[in-house]
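Explain my protein.
***
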Amino acid sequence: MSEPAHAELTLRDNAEATALLGQYNKNLKEIQTAFDAQILARGETIRIEGEPDEVERVRSLFEKLLDLIQGRHTPSLADVRYLTAQIKAGVGVDGVLSDIVRITHWGEEIRAKTVGQHRYVTAVRENDITFSIGPAGTGKTYLAVAMAIDFLKREHVKRIILTRPAVEAGEELGFLPGDIQAKVSPYLRPLYDAIFDMIPVSEFEKLIEHGRIEMAPLAFMRGRTLNNCFVILDEAQNTTSTQMKMFLTRLGFHSKAIITGDVTQVDLEEQVSGLITVQRILGGIQGIEFVRLDKADVVRHPLVARIIEAYERNDRPETPPSEES
């Protein structure tokens, strides 16, 4: 066992201490529970004692939280949990919670909450086509919509187009009741949920009416050229290779595309997912980026990451017994 270590942090004032430790020390209690180190907070001094590696982890967490505070962001308990999970996973916290992607219409800041999400946001800004591949709860769709709304509001694009393959119900859209909006609404519900966080319903309806936002099933993309658009293909694991090629070749000038999906949740009965094959076909092409998210990037209820981890363990093939046993 290595020799015990310690580190000390000196805060600027009582206000900084309150922001760091949280109301009623709730942030401090969360950190004390998460790490195997002794943390003593007295006035404006924090002392960390324990094994060297654990002391370093806690110190890096506190320093990141102080960076956020000095950048005028008061960390919430959820922020502390996101950062703690990243540090314990060994992926660091560079860029985490530092970049405001968009502000909701009620004033909440949308930030990349994990290293993977930060890579995702950066990839979208730097590339015309970005694939975001990962399990539920990693913010694939939510961040895509946030960035699309931001691009539209800043006049970087003229339209947003949101699409999904409609294969989950196992029936043709033409047989469903109502007009096209009524037919596709059930498939696009997750996209609506994200949009209504960004803009009020009344503004969304005006943007739909004026053609600034369009929501349509993937089949309606055939034959089009999408110029000056921010295009999102959601649930792309349910596209065939032919559909994926069709979608990607719609992209016109001054446009961006985000393709999101979870390759462990393919609903296609016979054909191979286009999201699986496209990684082999387009890997390494300049202007196209693949961002892979995992359970460390889950930003829903803490139990969601544990559920994903449990299913991953269940899906792993059992190691066959050796011949000697």
Notes: The longest helix spans residues 52-70. The chain has twelve helices and eleven strands. The mean pLDDT is 89.
